[in-house]
Predict the structure.
Amino acid sequence: MTVNGSSVEILLDMADLVRPNAVRAAAALKLADHLSGRPMTAGELAERAGAHEGMLGKLLRYLVELGILDADDAGRYTLTELGEPLRRDSPQSVGQYLSAEGLFGRIELGLVGLLHSVRTGEPCHAAAFGREYWDEINNDPVFVPALEAEGNQQIAWDAELIIEAYDWSRARRVLDVGGNDGTLLIELLTRHPHLHGTVLDLPNLARIAQRRIEQAGLADRAGAVAASFFDPLPTGYDVYLLSGILGDWSDERSITILRNCAEAAGPEGRVLLADIHLRVPAGTPNAARLELFLAASMPRPSRSVDELRELGRSAGLRVTWEGPSTPVRSLLEFSLAETAATGAESPREPAHA
Ligand SMILES: C[S@@+](CC[C@H](N)C(=O)[O-])C[C@H]1O[C@@H](n2cnc3c(N)ncnc32)[C@H](O)[C@@H]1O
């Protein structure tokens, strides 16, 4: 390979961090939205966006260089056609998606810790920001607007299976462990009116879930608590649901989560593991990039059902029912293994056959 001027330029361009951060800062400050009404000076925009005028002026000039903004002789800025999708009300808006304070934006910014991931195999986010992704998103108030704007809102990833394929008639109380903004629990309780339930999640999402449950008119049957699934969990529920949780955690930490569910469930309760399988299909454009991104941002994006079964076994659980699987979702019901529950080894009838 020869090193010539253009190779150097290409490499420097590939490694540039100013450009993505400028676009993401512009998205977080909603500059495109502020400029949708009329042209504005740096001073006006700084006031609207709550920014430092001097620094914002430099960002604005760079956004002109990138072709996202235009500037007139009086120092007033307007949005170009290229910048339009940064508006939150644009039909194909990417404003929230690219925001440095958005949920996806924050994952992408964590890629600054990629070197740590490649050296250790650990996720990159804590290396970049000093705390794990969900911990940061749930404890810093700056992310509340993003949690509200980008929240689940609808069940996804074949979560229909959880609601329809599992025999809920035997259960009365369900704890949705890591239940996010309550979307899944609300749907579950709406479709199975005999059920009562609680979302357990970290503080920001627990607050949002509580509000959404009340708005859904389910406050008499449901609520939300702020707690960590790495601590002992509340007892007294029939089903401890883990939907789309374990992919974010190493085997060791997944076993801790499962064990905490098992201990709270006791001999009579069940742990329903509804894991998500995030695979990059062969032939996907930029597949290598996507695989690298997934592996650096979450330790185990896709465990096999056998691997999940094995995790359960390591947590002192045995499979009592195996539900249908789709390419993106599987269902396993566990209960305490006999040895863990009673100290004796004897076969038991599956709760759901
Ligand atoms: C990938 S989301 C899955 C959300 C939801 N269960 C679903 O099926 O859509 C992971 C969830 O785990 C929550 N979480 C992360 N760490 C947690 C912890 N230590 N304790 C409780 N919840 C946690 C996150 O806040 C987030 O809501």
Notes: The first strand starts at residue 40 and ends at 41. The two ends are 62 Å apart (CA to CA).
